[in-house]
Every structure is written in C-alpha cells, then in structure tokens.
Structure prediction request, 916 residues.
Amino acid sequence: MPTTERPAAPAQPAVQLTLRLNGREATFAVEPDVTLLDLLRERAGLTGSKKGCDRGQCGACTVLVNGRRTLSCLALALAHAGDAITTIEGLAAGSELHPVQAAFVEHDAFQCGFCTPGQILSAVGAIAEGHARTGDEIREAMSGNLCRCGAYPNIVAAIAAVQRAR
Amino acid sequence: MSTVIEAVAVSRAVGQPLDRIDGHAKVTGAARYAADAPIAAPLHAAIVQSTIPCGRIAAIDESAARNLAGVVEVLTYRNAPRVPVLSFDFTTPVTEELAPLQSDAIAYDGQHVAVVIAETFEAARAGATLLRIGYERREAEVSLDTARTIEHPEQWFGDDAQPRRGDPERAYNAAAVRVDATYTTPEETHNPLEPSVTVAEWRDGELTVYDATQWVRGTRAVLAKSFELDEEKVRVISPFLGGGFGCKGFFWPHPLIAAMAAKVTNRPVKLVLTREQMFTSCGYRSETRQRVRIGASREGRLQAILHDVLAESSRVGMFVESAGAVTTMLYDVSNIAVTHRIARLDVPTPTAMRAPGKAPGTYALGSALDELAYACGLDPLDVLRRNDAAVDRSSGLPFSSKQLLACYERGAEAFGWSARPKAPRAWREGGELVGWGVATATYPALRSPAQARVTLSTDGLVDVASATHDLGTGMYTILAQIAADELGVDPRAIRVRIGDSSFPVAPVAGGSMSSASVGPAVQDAARRAYHEAVAIATSSGESALHGLPERDVEARDGALRSKADPSRAVTYADLVRLGGSGAIEALGSAAPGDEDERLSFYSFGAQFVEVRFDEELARLRVSRALGVFDCGRILNPKTARSQMIGGIVWGIGMAMLEETVRDPRYGAVVTNNLADYHVPVNADVPDIDVLFVEEPDLAFNSLGARGVGEIGITGVAAAIANAVYHATGVRVRDLPIVPEKLLGAGPAAG
Ligand code: FES
Ligand code: FES
Prediction:
C-alpha cells in the first residue's frame, strides 16, 4: 500500500453550551462531535448513564430530555442547548428513591445493574407516556432497553407494581 | 454502602429472599463499573483491528492520525513496549499465545493491530479512522466446512475428551429403536451489556488497573508476568461488572494494551472496546456440529449413546466446546462413546460462554431423547424418568445429592403436563399452533480454594473482603447473609468489599463456583472473628460476660449475649475496644478435600416450555417457561431465582435468536452489532416460573449450596425445540429456530 501524506483533520472549536442538568444550570465548552452521553460521562462526572453500544441499539444510555426518553449516545450535545436533562443521578428526591427505583430493588429487576439506569429512566418515560398500563404494553414499551442478564420478567413486575400504586 | 433493604424479622439471614445490598447503588447510578473509575483526566485509547484473517501487516501510515489535534501517541508492533508471549495455565490464564502489538503477524480478522491514544475520546476515535494499514493476505480457513486441521484432544480441563464405556457400536446396532440425527449450533457471542474496558495507571513503577474482569487475581498474574513485576506491584480492581458470562473470565489482550499505553504516555489511559470489537476481542461460543446416535428398547430404555462433536478453535489458542461432557453421566446407559474433534481455523479463540459445552450439548442430547420418545410412541417425560441414573455411570460414584426425579414430578404438576396431547401438530388455539416440550438441565458442582477476611471495628462495622466478584449474581448479598448468621448481626450492618486483587484470594467468577467456594471461606472467617470476640468477652474484666464459659455465650442482635440472660450483653464495637488492638480481624479459608473420590457432585433440573406458532404471521414465541432446579441449599431465593430466569432467557436467545455470522471466505463477523446479533428483548420473554427442590448438599461444603449461575440455560434450547416439534410437527436440528425454518420444511407428522 502506498503511504500518502494526509492533511490533519482541522481541530473543531469548542462551543459554549448550557443545559439544565438534573435541575441545575450547567455550562460546558463542547466540540461539535461530542455526544450528550460522552458529555455526561466524561465531562459532567455523571457516570450513571451507561454506554453499551454507542449506536442506539441497547438503551443503556437512556436519559430524559424535557421529560422524553432519549438515547443520549445518538444525541449530539450541542443540539440540546437549554434542554432539561434528567439522568439517573437526578431521579431520587434527596435520599428518597423514586418509586421506580424502589420497585426495581424490591422486585430484583436487575442483576449486573449496567442496563438499570437506562431501564429506570425508560420506565419513568413509558409511564408518563401512558404506555405501561398492561404487562404486554410494558414489554412493548420497554423493548428498546436490552438487559443481557435477562431480568425482563422482574422489570415488568416492578413497573406494573408502580403503575398499580399510582 | 447504604441500602434500602426492608428489615428482616428473622434470626437467620441465609435462605431469606433478601434484597440486594448493592441494589441502592445500582438504581441510583452510584455503582462504579470499570469505565467509571475515579481517575481524573485520563487519556483515551481507541483500538484498530485487522481486516484480514491471515497474513501480515505490510505497511502502516500513521501520519494523518498523528497530525490530528489531540492525538498523543500511536502504538503498533513497531513501537509498542516488548512483552513476553505467555502460555495458558491456571495461574496465567491467557487465551492466546500471541502477545499484542509484538509482530506483524495476523492470526484472525479483528486482531488488535494498533492503538490511538488521545486527549479526548473523540480524538482517539477519529484518529483510529485515520490510520492506514496495508496487509499481505494469505489463504485462510475460516469455516468448519473447509477445515483441514482437525485435532482430537485427549483431555479438557481434567476430563477425558474421548470417553467410552461398554461396546457402544454393537449395542447401538442391536437396538430395537435407533435415532441418528445431527444437530448444529452456531457461533454465539456473550455480549454483556458492559463492553470490556481497562483503565490503567502507573505510579512509581506500580500498575493499577480498573478492569472489567471476572478474575482480578488472574488478570493481575498476567500483567505482572508481562511487565516482569512482582504481583504485589500490580493491583486489579473490579468492584462491579456489567455482566460477563465467560468473556471476562480469562485474560484477553486489551488490558495489556491499556497498560502499555499508560506506560508509554506516562498518563492514566482509558480503553473501552466498542460493541463491534466485542465480537472478536474476548471470545465467543464455538459453533458445534453434533451427531447423536441413540439405541434403545421399545420401552425407551437407553442401551447406547454415541455423541460425536465437532467444534472450532483458533490457531493461537485452544478451547474445546465440550458438548459431549455430560452425555456420559446424565442418564443410565451402559454403552457410551463420546468424541470431540476441534478444527483449528484462522479465527479468534472461542471461550467459555454460560454453561460451556453443556448448553449446546444438552440441546443435542435433549432433542435426540425427544426424537426417541416419538419413535417409541412414548411421552417424552416418561423417557427421561425411565432413564434416570441412580449413580454417576461415568465414574460409578453415587451422587452427593440428586433430586432430578422430584424436579420432573414438581414441574409436571406445576406445568399441567398430563393435559398435553400426545400427537404433534394436534393443538390449535386462536389461530396458533401450541406445543409443550421438556428437557433435563444439569451442571457440575465445582469448588476452588478461597479465602476471605472479616474485620470488626470500633464503629460497629463488620467488613467482609475477598477477591471475588459480583457479575450480577448476588455475591455481595450472599456473603453479607453468611457473615450475618455467624456473627448474629443484621446483614445490613455488613459491608462487603470484593473485586480487588489486594483482597484475600478467590477463584475466577466462573464455572458456577463462586458461592460454593467463597461462601464457606467467609463463613470460616466470620467464625474465627466470632471466637476471638468471645475470648475477649469472657476474659476481659470490663466485659459483662466476664467469666462465662464460651458455650454459655451466643451472638444475637448485633452483640454477644449470655444464653441464660440475654440482657447480659456486649456489643462487637465494645469488644473491639476491650481487645485493645483497634480491630478484630480474622482470615478464613475453605477448600475442597477428597470428597470427589467418593461422591459425584452435580446440579439438576427440568425445563418445561410452551411455544405458540402463528403460521400466517410466521410468528414463533415462547409463551410459558418453567424451570425446576435441584442446586442444594438456596442461599438467597430472590437472587437465585433471578439467576435462573436469566439463564432461561439466555436459553430463549440461544434457541430462537442468537447467531454470530462469519463471512465464509474472509472470516469477518458480519453481525457485529446488537441490531444484527439478536439478544432477547423484553417482548421476547414471557413470565417465567422458577421452583427449587432444596436438599442441602453438606457433603459438598459447609453451606450445602451448589452453584446457580449456569444451570439455568441448560436444557432450555432442547425444551423449546421439542415444543416446536410438538406444536408444528417440524423438527429443527439447526439453531436458532427462526420462523423460516418452520415455513419451508412442512410437517414431518400430524
Ligand atoms: S449506548 Fe446508546 S443505545 Fe446503546
Ligand atoms: S441487569 Fe445486567 S444487563 Fe440488565
């Protein structure tokens, strides 16, 4: 193979970005190729959101953007100026777990826990969307969140319990 | 660690369905996995992999990558630090005789050939795409169909890989009923949701790595040997794992590359494999081709089984997918021949994946027994019952404990088996064909030497430490329960620390042996701490229990108490103060003895499955599943049930979805992402019932517990295939059972 001199890719200048992150304003200097997930994990210190595939296929990176569940690995950070982002770290009210978090513990709705932040935020979103009224609806609405440990029956039980208590 | 566990109003914690003590950390995002390591401002590394299956690197052009803003270094075989090539043994568990970045040789597609190290993840990723690598390709063999190098391993992990007894050919030929069928299973990839990751940091000649590993001690040993360091100078930390299932058990090259990168740059380095790279970088389950011949009487009594297995391994590492291993012991049959042949191909090395050997093996054998039942006109469950082995026929030893018949019985009753129509394709409901299938589950009970430390301190904290792991298995919780019972304290008052190579030694978290190995070590350590506390309590003049004989003292409600007068008590915190040395610390250990010379140790189970097939929509689904298991004493029914559910979900994936497809010419994995490699999603999984037939196996260890990690997947694929046959009349002998295999085939009966 002939070796060719290639021009260096131009450095991409960082841009000022302000978000509402778990209820608080936060400002970052962000290059245009930074995803929301990498911003959260590598720059905001919020490592609760997980990277399972980095291409929108697993759901581990699910966060709430203005209340809607969103795959943060497919979202460019700069596209979310001013948006309200809720991550797993921002879900509990102080030391009190969110009902979905508490139900996940009680129903053993996880094993390794790696999919869990995404599952919980997805469940909060699905309940808010009104897509968690029956077991089959929950299964359908939660099928974008893979759980390789196979905790699915317990995830359904946990969400159904929250739904019943509402 | 704080927890949200409900109070348990019982004196004994073991056996209770306690919520996970690490549950709070996992639902709040506080649990730190390797990629979340608390290392400030690491460099980021991105790996580049070979795109040919066999040959050598001819040219590397790094200029564009090096010119990219943010890129700090590029390592290839030309400039990477030299490390020795190690061979596999049980202290240095390397999977390949091929140290990374040491030469231009390419042994498989997807081999690590370079690493780009940059200030940001984005720059590393972009830099990796700018590296230009030219290759000289040589002819490769990447398929079992064209394999020319076939080996016949004599042994695998201490077991005879070509076992025989009796005169199987003669007995088979003389049998009144014969089944001869070949079953194939594809390559499968573990795909834990957490990709493999290493964060490496050097300080003063010492190496610390946060690594997603199921074996901190094994990883430490390989890193120490590679860099020619004392093991004490290497620390491997893995407190939480996002699943492993075998692909994080042995040592793969990437932690070494991360450590090299950190050494060369003199900065901490974070290396996360991409999902695509997970398909070639840390093993997979080999494809298998299994011919099973069964000779039996008309009453379905087995007379001979011949089980011939062909699987693959690489040129640089040996792994035997020992699908015939349990065929020799699972049923009562006098004539057996099992063979394992391994094709050496230009592919990555396969490895242990949940229930290695047993998962594909129980599929083939469980399917063949179902075929035998139909050939004899018998109920498949009756054939299983009729051939139950009272002793392990492979060794002649009695089983330590075996409740398989009870599993069949309880399962049949709970599932409603007696209502099953006998003929295939005879049952329709609402436009769907319905079928039920059954198969046997089994997994050997293994144990390794292990140690643990229990420390009581003046603040009342009970600390348990061991270099074991929690892959989601519930180890944190189980160890707290065990220590709690020995010390008479609430399990919530116990802090468990695991996943650190500086803690007392524990084996790889694999082979379903962690609870059975580490549990007794924790029990031993807690007992020793208890006795030390009692000695202080009865001898110290300031103790309320001074002068009492040891036998009149008991541990209850967080303190030592007089049995006669429980209000006479001293807390552990006070005893530590009275002891005067700041802490009561005890190292415990446990190891198997010679019991396996007298007894055979296995777990068993029965898998029952219902499937439904809509012919018009070509939709096949599992609509019910029930597993009944005999695993000795269940330490925590809540987490054990989750393990079994997980195993059954894996069985559904194996039976109906999962297939790693390799390009047959060049060997590249073409399904190298989670859209093309299908793991079960929530909507694929029905409600799953799990029952335990509990008989404590005290001949195995002091807790009476055998493992629960892997048996759950065994037998599931056979039960599903058998249910599919019952529903549709089509026997699928090639996994996964996707609907197109049902459509073209046409019913074989019914
Ligand atoms: S990491 Fe975003 S979907 Fe997998
Ligand atoms: S709990 Fe492990 S992936 Fe869901």
Residues A 51-54, 56-61, 71, 73 surround FE2/S2 (inorganic) cluster (ligand 1) (CB under 6 Å).
